[in-house]
Predict the 3D structure of the following.
Amino acid sequence: MTAPSTELLHAAYEEAPVGMSLVSAREGELGRILRVNRAVCRMLGYPENELLSLTVQEITHPDDMARDLESYRAVERGEADSYAIDKRFIRADGEVVWIQLYATLVRDENGAPLYLIGQAVDITPLRRAAARLSAVVDSALDAIVAVDAGGTILEFNPAAERLFGYTREQAVGASVDLIVPERERAALTRLLGGEDDSLLGRRIERYLLHAGGAELPVELALTCVDTDPPTFTGFIRDLRPARDAAHERTELEGRLQQAQRLDSLGRLTGGVAHDFNNLLAVIGGYADYLAGEVSDGPGAVEGIEEIRRAARRGAALTRQLLAVGRRDLADPVALDLRDAVTGLRRLLESSLGEHVDLEIRIPDHPCRAAIDVHQFEQILLNLALNARDAMSEGPGRLEIEVASGDGRVGVIVSDSGAGMEPEVAARAFDPFFTTKSPGQGTGLGLATVYGIVAQAGGEVGIESRVGEGTRVTIGLPEAPAPDWEPAAPPPAELRTARGETILLVEDEDGVRAMAARILRRHGYQVVEAAGAEEALTTFRGLERRPDLVLTDVAMPRMSGVEMAARLGKASPPVVFMSGYTDASVGSPDVLEHSAGFLQKPFSANALLQRVGDALAGSAGSPV
């Protein structure tokens, strides 16, 4: 076989697709370029004659200079015959190219370095692709962890750093057991050993380990790249935010369902209270009427007074029912909760008894809320009495704290009582729900609290654990300081009737008859109507316009408010009365365009006072 000619070898050298070079390694001229082929010229963008006038150091990227020199020195010391390095060169046009360089040192007969034979491959496209891939991995929101068949971590992206609490430097090269709980390691070993691929290619939920030792719920997707040896990649999503959101959504749905249930029960109790108030109005009104008729007979007088007391107790109960349904007429003021709480201390202490210690904590700044004073006092008393009953077995402690922040003010009431099971606490605000023995509770205490707070635009929450006590938190919108303090009203005096005519509109026959009898007895002329439509017809048929219209609000087919509007400019003053005061009854628009409001059940004096004030041109405050 004939040896290749010199010309053939030269042509192979020049046309080789791999860059080839000869670089001096002599002392004093290390790095001087002696010869290059055309592939090197293409890679670096220089003509051959320019490259031969340069040194390797002049076209090497400054950041790679020290690493390249150290690789050469290792070969020069005889630690190896050649070396390989990925390094950057500066092209003639200033661009940077990545070159994979293999260099072999040739020595003279004395062992002194003569020159380096280099082979170069342009890996710039590969490096750019790798950089793009790395950027994708590094910017991923999910953790990405790659391991080899032996379980050694090869890749650990920034999301993995955030999730597991290890840096990339700590994780890469370590065993994947770093983040895998012991109970999961056997299954992982079978996967990496090729014995079980059932976990590949699907999403599964597992627990992995944080650097601090806590287990993290994650969604894990495993893939295998068919390299030699294979590489396994885990795409890991933290499930804590999703689970927290699901938990919060469940809580919100529960609160919504509770609010809807309480609203339905509130509407029911409000309707019952309205009808009951009509009955109480008849009972109380006739008791007042009879009291004026009976002047002797102590038994009769005492009996009438008992009827009155029973009517008042019934009225107090209906006020609770109306509060549950948020239909009680409130008179909100800018109330400093600190003053209200401290003002009730003595009453609270006497109500709690000697076995309960009371602690009140208030801040040194105002905590004002727009709420009815009496309703707020009822809130505190209801909560205190509930707490007292929960601490009946022995010494207890009740803490009442007034707090404010973020435009809210509120009260936190905590006791050291028996506490409640979660399912009991969930129903604590339901009307008529009670854990007390029959006859010992109405089940309206906390329901009333809920209704009053909701009517004031606030919210109420309860936390309770068996054996640890109960904590009720009430939050209310913060109210600005009042510009003025209202003067106390003068003592009311009943106005003497002068034969005025009153159009009395009431669909409840008993209430209408009772009110008409009281008014007539005190000198008023009364024209009765059993409904709004009848009242309009009667009004138009009267020869003389009545001096006052006294009308119920909630009536079939047409409300008293609508009837008053239809009377128009010809209408005399109108006094509204109702067994409850929801948004349509107690709204500023209704009260502003009326001569007053009368809350059922009412006494004879309250009825006469309201009618007298209206005829005198003073609407006064709701009775």
Observations:
- Confidence is low (pLDDT under 50) at residues 484-488, 618-623.
- The chain has five domains: 6-127, 140-238, 251-324, 332-477, 501-615.
- The radius of gyration is 46 Å.
